[in-house]
Amino acid sequence: MSDLKPATALFGALPRHTATMRGIALMTASTIGFALMHVMVRYVSDDLHPFQTAFCRNVLGSLVFLPMIWRNGFGFMKTRQLPMHALRASLNVVAMLCFFYALTIAPLARVTALSFTAPLFAAVLGVVFLGERFRLRRWAAVLIGFTGTLVILRPGLIPGDLGSALVLIAAGFWGMTMIVIKLLSRTDSSLAITGYMSILLSLLSLGPALYVWTQPTFEQLAWLLLIGLVGTSAQIAFAQALKDADTTAVMPFDFLKLVWVSMLGIWIFAEVPDALTWVGAVIVFGSSFYIAWREHKAGRDDDTET
User: Which distant-in-sequence residues (6+ apart) come within 8 Å of 26 by Cβ?
Assistant: First the structure.
């Protein structure tokens, strides 16, 4: 946890409780940050293309690291895994562009609910690429989780939409990035992983942004700056929460993201999520959490499930 001090400095001095309590606090902060970012992306989408917003989020979000660079230099960016960081960024830029576009054309609560499928994709990919062992219960959890996705989408009952499809594509690519992050976290700090993500995503998202570029006003620049700072701060808080505490202790609080997004969607955009969206989200999130819990348990003792 060598990067704990600069990370907590971003969010203020947290009380010196247990690492678990600190992780919960950081995870809750990250859900608030992500929810605010999603709402702001939707808010500016009337005038700015989401590809341009994604580029500005990456570039301006990198400003979060300036105080750390000023105080400590670039030491936290040391890595021997630059190709892996490049791979992560290449996968992440596809996910980000799809997700940001989805935020502008689909209900916010549905987008957030479907984004919880990313760990399900990661679980399947972990078996394929990392040789992780999955037995009956965890495979059942994956199937139940994707059933929750069908509850949200209700194919045949409500029209399919591009936004939902883009979220699932984004979730699939996020699942791939989770595999890469697992490998990177063995050697690099959460700040280094987030730092390289911001830098490389800025470069990779420049081309799509230039294709749709319009000159932002000063007010729009202020919103873009806020999107960048809040989004990067939330990403650091999320990564540090997972580093500080057990996944099973902090991941249940990630569901708060849907609560905040739904509240803000009702207040600002008059979007009221229906009951089945909540039901599907609970199924998807519960399945993802169960898989995380089984992985945690398997890491502590022999997996004896049948």
Answer: 7, 8, 11, 14, 237, 238, 240, 241, 244, 250
